[in-house]
């Protein structure tokens, strides 16, 4: 689904199936955990702006809005994706929701301090090693409070697990192909540890989560998580 030429019913169907798969696998829980930890470390502000980079159709946004309501936080979310067809599906999914806006764009064009918290779920594994650090640095610059990354653990067991899960939950060709490829491009702890050596990423922390996921946090300068 990285191909900008892909659109139409195949892409729309893939995005809709992904929402179901992510809900079944509890994918949004990891992003929500990271946002809540950064929010608490920042002193529990009453207002919070979220920039979700590579958002797809933005299904994690609904989980964040529900959490914000429970925590009495006034939240607004910007969904950023580079694919115009994906943005169109996100706009349909959030039609009538004033707290969410959709924007087409590239993460490398983000202005410093674009949002309180920047999130990226299943995005960074798409970058080759040479651009991975630069992408993460761009996210860190764009965040005032910090960055939350939710991404995949690379292992043979994870690859088999996602193959079985997508076979059971999806008939979409794109999902079945991309899911296995994504796990093969995922991260091991050594990959994440190396990123700490880059300017702006010295405070990066990571923790393994169920379903072969990583929760990565990058607090802003002078903040903890």
Descriptive keywords:
225 residues; alpha/beta; Rossmann fold; seven-stranded mixed sheet
Instruction: State the domain count.
Output: 1
Q: For this structure, what is the CATH homologous superfamily?
A: Vaccinia Virus protein VP39
| Parts with pLDDT < 50 across at least 5 consecutive residues | none
Topology order in helix (H) and strand (E) letters: HHEHEHEEHEHHHEE
User: Would you give the CATH topology?
Assistant: Rossmann fold
CATH class: Alpha Beta
At CATH's second level, what is the architecture?
A: 3-Layer(aba) Sandwich
Shape: globular
Number of strands: 7
The main pleated sheet reads as: 7 strands, mixed
Strand order, largest beta sheet: 3-2-1-4-5-7-6
Distance between the termini: 32 Å
Proportion of helical residues = 40-55%
Strand content: 15-25%
Radius of gyration: 16 Å
Judged by helices, strands and strand pairing, the structural class is alpha/beta
> What number is the mean pLDDT?
88
Count of helix runs = 8
Explain this structure to me?
The structure is a single chain. This protein has 225 residues and is an alpha/beta fold. 45% of the residues lie in helices and 22% in strands. It has a single domain, classed as 3-Layer(aba) Sandwich (Rossmann fold), CATH 3.40.50.150. α3 links the parallel β1 and β2.
